[in-house]
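User: Sequence recovery, please. Input:
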């Protein structure tokens, strides 16, 4: 009995960590994690194959798919059928299918946040910026 309870608690903990403790794509503030949950899939970062990669799987754990190799991602967020992620201090977007990878900014990105159709972020010098989801219209916030 004790072994069954331990296994169940370990499973709950693993799912909580994988899900980013509730900060998924349905979160009110839009904050990203190293995992995001949509209605049908979980998108997550893994180094299981020796490389840093973004994967997805169905919410029941089946149908695991590698989306893209990335260099040490520290942030991942799903918005409008795209994955936005920070890798090597830069912000990128890629379609959920793994196609059309784009570097969004030359700035070294810290603390990105997507709200509605805009990306807000801070650069390494402490300046705050906002830009459109396609990377255009960048403005420094004063």
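Assistant: Recovered sequence (142 residues):
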């Amino acid at each position: 009995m004790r072994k069954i309870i331990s296994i169940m608690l370990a499973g709950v903990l693993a799912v909580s960590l994988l899900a980013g403790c509730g900060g998924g794509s349905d979160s009110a503030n839009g904050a990203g994690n190293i995992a995001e949950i949509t209605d049908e899939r979980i998108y997550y970062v893994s180094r299981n194959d020796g490389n840093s990669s973004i994967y997805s799987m169905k919410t029941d754990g089946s149908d695991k798919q590698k989306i893209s190799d990335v260099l040490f991602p520290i942030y991942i967020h799903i918005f409008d059928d795209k994955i936005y992620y920070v890798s090597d201090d830069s912000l990128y977007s890629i379609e959920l299918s793994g196609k059309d990878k784009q570097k969004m900014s030359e700035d070294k990105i810290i603390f990105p946040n997507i709200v509605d159709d805009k990306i807000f972020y801070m650069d390494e010098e402490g300046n705050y910026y906002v830009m459109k989801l396609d990377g255009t219209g960048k403005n420094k916030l004063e």
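Confidence is low (pLDDT under 50) at residues 1-32.
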